[in-house]
Amino acid sequence: MCINILTWNIKVGQNKDGGYPVSKTGNLDRIADLIKDSKTSIVCLQEVDAYTLRSGIKTHQAAYIANRLTLTTGKVWNYKYIVSKNMNPGYYGNAILSCYPMTTALKIHLPKVNSKEDRSFLLTNVHTDDFSIYIGTFHLGLQGDQFFQAQQIKNVLNNNCYFDKRIILGGDLNTPEGSVAYHIMLNQGFPMIDVGPVGVCTLNCYNNSDNPKIDFLFLRGLSTYNLRSEVLPVDISDHRPVMLYQF
């Protein structure tokens, strides 16, 4: 196995304070450059806009980042996208990018229960040079919806017989280590391992480094030998990226 994977809530290309750079694609360029410089091969992104007024009516953010990576790395980058919310015009959702071929395996709508927004889960099958692996990304809700939505993800994966597959799930749980939703992701249906670093801030870390980790990489079916993870000290959005790589 030789795979580097990163998960990142990119806050629709906004700055950490919620504004945009002078060019609304400026932070997308910075995100793509960090992906390239970190030698990442698979990326899970949350809070990704496509053709919205706020982020640029002509910009599909996942496509933009994939295209820039194709230009700067010399490899063809692909993306898959899932809609969480219709923005009228455009969409808001999650994406998976990879320099390997990939196909969509599952798209799961995660309806709101207590909070104001529907959320989503995307699962792809990525075909590396040596093996295939299922990569999923999620962005869960607030006000207790994390519990219901985490249950839905694990139940669908279990019911569709992904319990014996190689899987890495990366995303924004919107709740910390030790929470009910966190334990559901680890234990319900089939066991997974949290391979992100323990107790390291990922949200608003520029204000308080003691803030919790709410962005995770969960793994099953793969050896953890020679794997290392870290939260990258980058404050482009209000979340910091979490990276898993082989050393």
TrEMBL record:
GO cellular component: membrane
A single GO BP: GPI anchor biosynthetic process
Keyword Cell division tagged: no
Gene3D superfamilies found in the cross-reference section: Endonuclease/exonuclease/phosphatase
Single annotated GO MF: endonuclease activity
Stretches assigned to the Endonuclease/exonuclease/phosphatase domain: 6-239
KW Nuclease (keyword) present: yes
Coiled-coil region(s): none
Keywords from the UniProt entry: Endonuclease, Exonuclease, Hydrolase, Nuclease
Name of the protein this chain belongs to: Endonuclease/exonuclease/phosphatase
